[in-house]
């Protein structure tokens, strides 16, 4: 029986993180330079229903039944089997690997779930359609991110730029000009669940103030879509700067993120902002031309790593 394989890219949020959770539009793009992969193979001489999960990078080598059902790898496998209506599959080994940094705002959790759903459903002979793959990843996100908007699983499953509004059908759009993005890591892990939970508590304490901030971010995301479609990169950079200022007001930035954002602008970026949950993880800068000097400036300013990606 042939093996089943699944892969999924990372992602960055260009506009609208956090406000997306409250129904505002947000824009995200896939990042092809990093990826999660899953490989499903038959496990010979084992009783049917036995599922061995191996993810050496996170120290997992266990049977599905031995893992906490809430464990993200176990949950991805269970939700995939549920989506397929399969209770006792052939015995298999599922091997998972990823080059997407964890807790860094690049969608590693959603990408691993998407890779597993694709590999396992493919191995079982009925590859799930994208809509259902995305739904599996969303169920896992709900366990680990509390109240996710669904943007991560959507952009990662469909692997193209998305204009995302929670609960609405997928909207994609064409870019008027390619984007040269530099992504720089603070090196500080920051689980999305924590920042999303903190924003929720702050919103509950001061709903009017936070809803006004979310609405302003939503207005920026709408303007950004127009700028992206028309290829107006200078305008886009300004909108990134404005979005970052609003994320500071949501209290999800940090001195390290602010420092990298300031360095990117000083090095000639058209705009820069934190990306994803914030507090740590990654920031994003829009390069005006050659990204190499921008990457060098960000590393000199303390970024633990940088990544250049072109979105076309
Ligand atoms: C995480 O990539 C983006 C957040 O807006 C959370 C979400 O939308 O689920 C912070």
Task: List the keywords.
312 residues, alpha+beta, Ribosomal Protein S5, domain 2, Alpha-Beta Plaits, 2 domains, seven-stranded mixed beta sheet, four-stranded antiparallel beta sheet, 9 helices, globular, binds (R)-mevalonate
Structural notes for this entry:
The chain is α+β, with helices and mostly antiparallel strands and 312 residues long. It folds into 2 domains: 4-164, Ribosomal Protein S5, domain 2 (2-Layer Sandwich), CATH 3.30.230; 175-311, Alpha-Beta Plaits (2-Layer Sandwich). The chain has 9 helices and 11 strands. It has helices at 72-84, 108-123, 130-145, 151-158, 192-205, 207-230, 233-249, 255-266, 292-300, and strands at 4-15, 26-42, 51-55, 60-63, 92-98, 162-164, 171-172, 179-185, 271-274, 282-286, 305-311. The strands form 2 sheets. Strands 1, 2, 3, 4, 5, 6 and 7 form a 7-stranded mixed beta sheet that branches. A 4-stranded antiparallel beta sheet has the order 9-10-8-11. The mean pLDDT is 95. It binds (R)-mevalonate (MEV). (R)-mevalonate is lined by residues 13, 17-18, 20-21, 105, 145, 148-149, 151-152, 192, 196, 276-277.
How do the SSEs run, as a string of H and E?
Answer: EEEEHEHHHEEEHHHHEEHE
Report Rg: 20 Å
- The CATH architecture of the largest domain can be named as 2-Layer Sandwich
Overall structural class, as computed from helix and strand content, comes to: alpha+beta
List the helices and strands and how they pair.
Blueprint: E1 4-15, E2 26-42, E3 51-55, E4 60-63, H1 72-84, E5 92-98, H2 108-123, H3 130-145, H4 151-158, E6 162-164, E7 171-172, E8 179-185, H5 192-205, H6 207-230, H7 233-249, H8 255-266, E9 271-274, E10 282-286, H9 292-300, E11 305-311
Parallel strand pairs: 3-5
Antiparallel strand pairs: 1-2, 2-5, 2-6, 3-4, 6-7, 8-10, 8-11, 9-10
The site of (R)-mevalonate has 15 residues, from α4 and α5.
């Amino acid at each position: 029986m042939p093996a089943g394989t699944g892969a999924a890219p990372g992602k960055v949020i260009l506009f609208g993180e956090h406000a997306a959770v409250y129904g505002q539009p947000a824009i995200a793009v896939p990042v092809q330079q990093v990826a999660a992969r899953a490989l499903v193979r038959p496990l010979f001489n084992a009783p049917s229903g036995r599922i061995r999960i191996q993810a050496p990078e996170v120290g997992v080598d266990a049977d599905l039944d031995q893992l906490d059902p809430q464990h993200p790898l176990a949950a991805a496998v269970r939700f995939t089997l549920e989506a397929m209506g399969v209770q006792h599959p052939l015995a298999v080994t599922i091997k998972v690997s990823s080059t997407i940094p964890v807790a860094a705002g690049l969608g590693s959790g959603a990408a691993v779930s998407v890779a597993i759903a694709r590999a396992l459903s493919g191995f079982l002979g009925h590859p799930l359609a994208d809509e259902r793959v995305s739904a599996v990843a969303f169920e896992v996100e709900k366990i680990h991110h509390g109240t996710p908007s669904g943007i991560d699983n959507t952009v990662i499953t469909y692997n193209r730029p998305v204009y995302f509004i929670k609960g609405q059908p997928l909207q994609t759009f064409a870019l008027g000009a390619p984007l040269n993005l530099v992504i720089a890591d603070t090196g500080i892990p920051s689980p999305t669940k924590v920042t999303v939970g903190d924003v929720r508590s702050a919103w509950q304490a001061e709903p009017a103030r936070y809803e006004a901030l979310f609405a302003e971010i939503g207005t920026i995301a709408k303007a950004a879509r127009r700028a992206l479609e028309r290829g107006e990169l200078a305008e886009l950079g300004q909108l990134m700067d404005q979005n970052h200022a609003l994320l500071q007001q949501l209290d999800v930035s940090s001195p390290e993120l602010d420092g990298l954002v300031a360095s990117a602008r000083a090095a000639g970026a058209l705009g820069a902002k934190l990306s994803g949950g914030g507090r740590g993880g990654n920031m994003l800068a829009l390069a005006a031309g050659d990204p190499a000097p921008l990457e060098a400036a960000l590393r000199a300013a303390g970024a633990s790593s940088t990544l250049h990606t072109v979105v076309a």
